Amino acid sequence: MKIIKVKNKQDGGEIAYKLIREAHESGATVFGLATGSTPETLYSVLRKSDLDFSDKIAINLDEYIGLAGDHPQSYKTFMKEHLFNDKPFKETFIPDGLAEEESEVKHYNTVIESNPIDVQILGIGTNAHIGFNEPGTPFDTQTHKVALTDATIEANKHNFDSENDVPRFAYSMGIKSIMSAKKIILLAYGENKAEAVANTVSGPVTEDVPSSILQKHPDVVLILDEAAASQL
Ligand code: F6R
């Protein structure tokens, strides 16, 4: 794993952008994307850049079950507002939160298999989830329906009017699919990510710490601010 320490989230976004740009220049065509507060600065740099994604494909990690794509808190809306409205891609894929489980899982796995991911952007949960693969998720999982943990509901409730409004389930790309990406860039900022980051880098590789599997990937870059790196 390569670790890049940055001063703050703004610098982290700039560094991540440079890595994306390099991949773009080397011919990457499929970009795996994340939502949440962590990649916001990266998307802001991307939006203002001259990089052209009009012949590229974006595949997002996850979506809340029960929210329509045009719901203000859906990840589809997030991606439109933070990136796609300003930076159009040839095709974008995000799980359909209203679709029936069996067909959506099959569909999303086909999407990922037909479009092997060149670069995958990841954030990390305080419980070390990647995508919405919560602790205990088998490492060989592909797209699946996830019951969000209390920690994740708690961490995400600020985006909703109340905790009761946070969906309890999501569709998520699985760990096996994430690991199949050629390059992985994980971003983490803030003290509350420090323990998860330390366990990712030097803890045992265990399904109790989903991100620990990244130790087995040949090309992972971690971009961390000082607080997130403070337990390394
Ligand atoms: C989002 C995702 C999650 C987040 C993680 C961190 O698509 O898959 O794993 O990356 O929950 O969220 P933030 O960035 O809001 O701290």
- The tally of helices reads 7
What do we call the CATH topology? Rossmann fold
Distance between the termini: 13 Å
Tell me about the biggest sheet?
7 strands, parallel
Instruction: Assign an overall shape.
Output: globular
Evaluate the radius of gyration: 16 Å
**How would you classify the helix and strand content by structural class?**
alpha/beta
The strand line-up of the biggest sheet is: 1-10-9-6-2-3-5
CATH architecture name:
3-Layer(aba) Sandwich
Describe this protein with a few key phrases.
10 strands; globular; 3-stranded antiparallel beta sheet; 7-stranded parallel beta sheet; Glc/Gal-6P_isomerase
List the helices and strands and how they pair.
Blueprint: E1 2-6, H1 9-25, E2 30-33, H2 40-48, E3 57-60, E4 62-64, H3 75-84, E5 91-93, H4 101-114, E6 119-122, E7 144-147, H5 150-156, E8 169-172, H6 175-179, E9 183-188, H7 194-202, E10 220-225
Parallel strand pairs: 1-10, 2-3, 2-6, 3-5, 6-9, 9-10
Antiparallel strand pairs: 4-8, 7-8
Helix pairs in contact: 1-2
The chain binds fructose -6-phosphate (F6R).
The site of fructose -6-phosphate (F6R) has 14 residues, from loops.
